[in-house]
Amino acid sequence: MKRIYDQLLSEHFSNNRQMAFVAGPRQTGKTTLAQNLSDKYLTWDNQKDRKSIIQGADETADYLDLNNLREKQIITAFDELHKYSKWKSFIKGFFDLYNDQTKSLVTGSARLNIFKKGGDSLMGRYFLYRMHPLSVAELISQDLLDTELRKPQSIGSEEWETLLTYGGFPEPFLKRNMRFYNRWRRMRTEQFFTEDVRDLTKIQEIAQIQLLSDIIKSQVGQLLNYSNLATSVNVSQDTIKRWITTLGNLYYSFTIQPWHTNIKKSLIKQPKIFLWDWTMCSDVGARNENFIASHLLKAVHFWTDSGLGNYDLFFLRDKMKREVDFLVTKDNIPWFIVEVKTSDTQLSPSLEFFQKQTKAKHAFQVTLNAPFVNKDCFTHDTPIKVPAKTFLSQLV
Fold first, then answer.
1. CA nearest 9: which of 310, 308, 306, 395?
2. Cα angle vertex 304, ends 303, 310, to 5°?
3. Is 130 a residue whose pLDDT tops 90?
4. Residue 159 burial by Cβ neighbours in a 10 Å radius (0-12, 13-18, 19+)
5. Which residue has the higher pLDDT, 199 or 329?
6. SS3 for the chain, per residue?
7. Is 361's pLDDT higher than 60?
8. Which of 56, 74, 105, 231 keeps 20 to 30 A from 84, CA to CA?
9. Pick among 3.40.50.970, 2.60.120.260, 3.40.50.300, 3.90.230.10: CATH of 4-130
C-alpha cells in the first residue's frame, strides 16, 4: 500500500546528497519502502549480500556493479544493516567513496543512531527518518504539505474501527482478520525478544525483560514507578531504567517526560510510558490514550524529520495532581495541549488552567467516540471539545 514515507524519501533523494536512515518498529513497512524506492536492494539477512558488506565498500561496489558509467545516480538500499557490528565504519566508507555513483537508503528496526560499536562519526552524512505505523491522516491522504496541519477530512467508519482494533502495522490492518492478527502478534513478539533484544543487546535475562514488558502493558499512560517495577521483576532500579531505555530504543515502548517550564509545583522526574502498538492495551481507556499518544508522536517525529522545526511531546502534571495528557511544543515553545476522553464529558478545568500556565495557543479535549465534524479545530484559541476523527485527520 502507498505510504506517506514513499513521498518523503523520494523528496529527500531529489534534494539532498546525504544518506537517508529509516528507523522504526519491526513490521512497520521499512523493507517494502526500501524495495520500492531502490534500484539495488541489499539486506543483511541475505547471505550473499552480507558477504559483500563484510568484505568492505569496494567489494560491495563491485557486487552492485557501480563502476559502470550511468546517466544518473542509482539508489541503493541496505536493509537491517544495524545487525552488522561494524555497520557505521562500512557505511561511512561506502558513502565517502561512492556517493557520486549511488545514493544510499539504510533501514533498521533498531535505532540507527544508538549502537556505537566501532566506526567513525557519521555527522553530516545522513538524515534520520522515523517510520511509524499507519494513522488516521495517512489513511486519508499521503500527500506532503509545506505546513504541519491538514484540512479536516473524514475517515471511513470501517477504517477507523480497523485501526483501533488491529493497529497501524500494515499487514494486520490490511488482513482485518482476528485469527491472523493473533498469530501475527505472537510471532512478532517472539521475534522481538529472540532476535532484537537477544542479538542487539547484552541482556541475558530475557524472561525477566519479557516480564517487564508484560507489566508495562497494564501501566500504559501511568507514571513510571521504578521501585515497584524493580520489586516485581526482581532486579535493581538501575537495571529497570536501563531496560526501559532498551525497550524504547528497540521500538517496543516510548516514554513522555513532564513539561515543567512555567508550571508552579510541577512534576519534574517521572515519565509516563506508552506502547508502539496500542492494541496490546487491554484497558479501553488506556488504549484510547495510547492511540492518541502514538498519533502525536508520529506527528512530532514527522514534522521534525521533514525539516519544519523541532517538535516534542510532553505531558502536564503538578503536585496538586492537576493533569493534562499531552503537550506538543514547537522549537521548545508550547503549541497545543490535549486531554483524551473516550466519550463526551464535561470540559476538564485543567485545560484552561494549564493553557494559562504554558501560554499554549490551543487546548483540546479530544473525544474518541464523537462523530466527525468538518471544521478546523486549530482555528480555536480557547479550550474546546473536539472529535478524535477531526483532530487526528489534521495531523500526519
1. 306
2. 115
3. yes
4. middle
5. 329
6. CCCHHHHHHHHHHHHCCCEEEEECCCCCCHHHHHHHHCCEEEECCCHHHHHHHHCCHHHHHHHHCCCCCCCCCEEEEEECHHHCCCHHHHHHHHHHHHCCCEEEEEEECCCCCCCCCCCCCCCCCEEEEECCCCCHHHHHCCCCCCCCCCCCCCCCHHHHHHHHHHCCCHHHHHHCCHHHHHHHHHHHHHHHHHHHHHHHCCCCCHHHHHHHHHHHHCCCCCECCHHHHHHHHCCCHHHHHHHHHHHHHCCCEEEEEECCCCCCCECCCCCEEEECCHHHCCCHHHHHHHHHHHHHHHHHHHHHHCCCCCEEEEEEEECCCCEEEEEEEECCEEEEEEEEECCCCCCCHHHHHHHHHHCCCEEEEEECCCCCCCCCHHHCCCCEEEEHHHHHHCCC
7. yes
8. 74
9. 3.40.50.300
The C-alpha cell at 263 is 508550571
The model's pLDDT over 345-355, given as tens digits with 9 standing for 90+, comes to 999 999 999 99
Q: Where are the domains of the chain?
A: 4-130, 136-393
Q: Which residue type sits at 235?
A: V
For residues 243 and 233, what is the distance between their CA atoms, to the nearest angstrom? 11
Euclidean distance between CA atoms 283 and 285, whole angstroms = 6
